[in-house]
């Protein structure tokens, strides 16, 4: 008689542990999203509950969705805004170098060069 009640209690205990385990596993994408400060963490949480009713078909996609975003780099594998700022700085530096080169090129042209250019263009203009 005691073993019957023990088996029944053990059965209930195992059922509760499995039930809690399934719920805890389905909250993993939401916990990842919270840790990474994901902008859509509420949607991930709701989708996790929906995945319980879809026989867990969308759960792997929730995992991927939660792990794609990181606060320091945003979506994907680039640095996001940081990379844009770096590129803007590089473009600015290149523009300054081009301007310096244009100034140096203008300084290299001597008055003799300018004078010979005007002499060659003057006879053509007269004709």
UniProtKB/TrEMBL annotation:
Organism: Shewanella electrodiphila
Alphabetized UniProt keyword annotations: Membrane, Transmembrane, Transmembrane helix
InterPro entries, alphabetized: UCP028770 (IPR011223)
Region of interest called Disordered, as start-end residue ranges on this chain: 103-127
Transmembrane segments: 6-25, 46-66
Keyword Transmembrane helix: yes
Protein's UniProt name: DUF3302 domain-containing protein
Ranges in coiled-coil conformation: none
Superkingdom to which the source organism belongs: Bacteria
Amino acid composition bias (Low complexity), ranges on this chain: 109-127
Keyword Membrane attached: yes
């Amino acid at each position: 008689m005691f073993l019957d009640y023990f088996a029944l209690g053990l059965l209930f205990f195992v059922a509760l542990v499995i039930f809690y385990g399934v719920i805890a596993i389905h909250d993993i994408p939401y916990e990842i999203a919270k840790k990474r400060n994901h902008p859509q963490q509420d949607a991930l949480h709701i989708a996790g509950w929906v995945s319980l009713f879809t026989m867990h078909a969308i759960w792997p996609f929730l995992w991927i969705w939660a792990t794609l975003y990181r606060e320091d780099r945003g979506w994907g594998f680039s640095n996001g805004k940081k990379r844009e700022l770096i590129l803007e700085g590089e473009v600015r530096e290149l523009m300054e170098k081009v301007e310096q080169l244009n100034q140096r090129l203008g300084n290299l042209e001597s008055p003799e060069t300018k004078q010979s250019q005007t002499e060659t263009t003057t006879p053509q203009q007269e004709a």
